[in-house]
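In this supplementary section we document a worked example of the pipeline. Step one takes a protein sequence of length 424 as its only input; no multiple sequence alignment statistics are reported here. Step two produces a three-dimensional model, which step three serialises into structure tokens for compact storage. The input and output of this example are shown verbatim.
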Amino acid sequence: MRRRLLLALFGILGVTTPWATVSAQTAPRAFSLFLDCSDFYCEPDFYRTDIAFVDHVRDRTAADVHVLITNQSTGGGGRTYTLAFYGQRKFAGISDTLTAELAQGATEDEQRKALSRTIKLGLARYVARTPAGANATLSLAGAPADAPKSAAARDPWNAWVFRLGAHGNGSRERNFTNNRLNGSVSANRITTQWKTSLRVDENYNDQAFTIDGKKVTSVTRNFSGSALQVKSLGEHWSAGLRAGASSSTYLNQHLAASVAPAVEFDVYPYSESTRRQLRLQYSAGMQHYLYNDTTVYFKKKESRPFQSLTVLFEQKQKWGSLEGQVDGYHFLDDLSKSRLNYSLGADVRIIKGLSVNFYGNYSVLHDQIYLPKGSLSREDVLLRQSQLATTYRAFFYGGISYTFGSVFNNIVNPRFGGGGNNNF
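The serialised model returned by step three reads:
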């Protein structure tokens, strides 16, 4: 009886014999491939089915070809994907780099098809070095030879890209309500020599609690606007001008406005920015403040000169990614009023199947000149309606994962949810 129940249970769970599973996966394939890309534009199940002439493995050390995919936005609102092909094992030393351009508004399906097409083109040189190359063909679809050549496309927008956005959400409970509204407007124009970026954001949030029959309401409003103009000065240098204005009930700022020219140097060429950057940026300018309430320094408004320096490092390689930043500024009329920020993040593969990721930042704060005079009410503190005095701010998260077992599995099974993620 127990044996029959076990057999029935195995049948329900879909357990198959080991040799049946192996036979389903032993179709001739040219070599093994590891796709290294972000979850935002990487769909393993799609690439396993669309690029079916290779073995897709989940560990880079088990692959004959490692493809690292990075991306950055373009001036027209689209994205440029850089695909770096690294030959390993039997293809050691054979590497290549291709790019794929996607226009603004491209759907997820158009995005993954464009990436898949580019991956296949990059893999052609490796297929040609295997016995499977004897059965491979390559075709090029194009316009007929006698088709008239079209003139260069005229851009009626002169490279300007505009975006309008708004969203809201709300939640309700018996003794709690919450509403959020956000809106934004942006305009960008990017060419090889100039970069112009304009943006305005508005945020509103209200919360209401009923405690012991008493209703307590919290409302915060934030507004910000920014403008950036940058001129390219070669592969390593650029100069620009930043201007901004903001308003925040939380920071006791009716208006905070700034303007500052800046200069930037990248140790690596800007053309390599999707893979690595080491940028140093210096700026100096003026800040002007109008406060909602009198500050602890008995000010209702003030203007201060300042200078800032930022050092940013980013690296994306086969072993993972690493980024760190140090930035700080101080007021030139009072050097004791300053701020220094440190941040470091990494996603690194240690050994086969073992990965660690972490991110942390730490800020040393000595610039809270905007704090309101007087004491805050208990409700203001608990609901965080106003910034509290502090000399530091810190945040950290980290994780570790270890995956083991079969690295060769090209089977896609979407039943009861793709990717094995089931929510009940």
